[in-house]
Amino acid sequence: MKVKVYNGFIVDGTGQEGFYGELLIDNKKITHVGVAVEETYDLAIDAKGHVIAPGFIDTHSHSDLALLTGSLVKPKIFQGITTEVLGQDGIAMAPLPTEYINDWRKNIAGLDGDSDSINWHYKDTAGYIQALKAAGLGVNATYLAPHGNIRMEAMGLENRVATDEELDAMKKILRRELDAGAIGLSTGLIYIPCAFADKKELIELCKVTAE
Q1: Which residues of 37-75 are buried (b: 16+ CB within 10 A; e: fewer)?
Q2: Torsion angle (degrees, nearest 10) of CA 79, 136, 110, 204
Q3: pLDDT of residue 177
Q4: What rounded mean pLDDT belongs to the chain?
Q5: Which tens digits make up the pLDDT trace of 43-53?
Q6: Beta strand residue intervals within 41-132, DSSP E
């Protein structure tokens, strides 16, 4: 299926000035952007009065839970957002040891909301990503491993400095989450339990992320 989009104001993301033109989408891939499409096509879409642009990236998204309850977060789509970076502020969905599910749901509800309609027993980033896929994602999504979740798995929610053994456990958990598909580490030093960390903890976790 070849689709021509015409009459729109094209802003292509390269930094060049926008212009009125056309583009061709062939089998879900953009194959032409310019003043006019000379090739044949199966469908034409009149974009008069609209801007044609690449999808926007929400680099600080809290759709972590919403994307498990529906494939689309419509307010984001209506803004042109097609990629969401999840796992923000050091407190997010995974990892989540079973014994902390109830406490953790309360802790993240203010940022991500809460729901009884999902299975909270996904345990780690690998399980969370699988749950996202099973929900049928309608957007692109990627995940940062949250510091607070990692700390919680290693030493609970206590307000104290981590021991060397607990810090080693955090580093192993972070490596596991990165290997499972997380693209980096997030923290939020105003949120529990991230706020309980000292500088040494942050530096050591950043070293693992840098690997």
Answers
A1: beeebeeebebeeeebeeeeebeebbbbbbbbeeeebee
A2: -100
A3: 98
A4: 96
A5: 999 999 999 99
A6: 43-46, 51-52, 56-58, 81-86
- CA–CA gap between residue 87 and residue 63 (Å, rounded): 9
d(CA 197, CA 12): 43
Q: How confident is the model at residue 123 (pLDDT cuts 50, 70, 90)?
A: very high
The 8-class DSSP code of residue 186 comes to E
How far apart (Å, rounded) are the C-alpha atoms in residues 166 and 133? 32
Inter-residue contact 194 to 186 (CB < 8 Å):
no
Write down how long the chain is.
Answer: 211
The predicted pLDDT at position 71 comes to: 72
* pLDDT of the residue at 72: 79
* pLDDT tens for each residue of 5-30: 999 999 998 999 999 999 999 998 99
Which residue type does 13 have? G
Where helices occur in the chain by DSSP H, the ranges are 66-69, 74-78, 101-112, 125-135, 147-155, 164-180, 199-210
Structural element, H or E, at residue 199: helix 199-210
Sign of CA dihedral 36, 37, 43, 47: negative
Element (H, E) at 141: strand 140-143
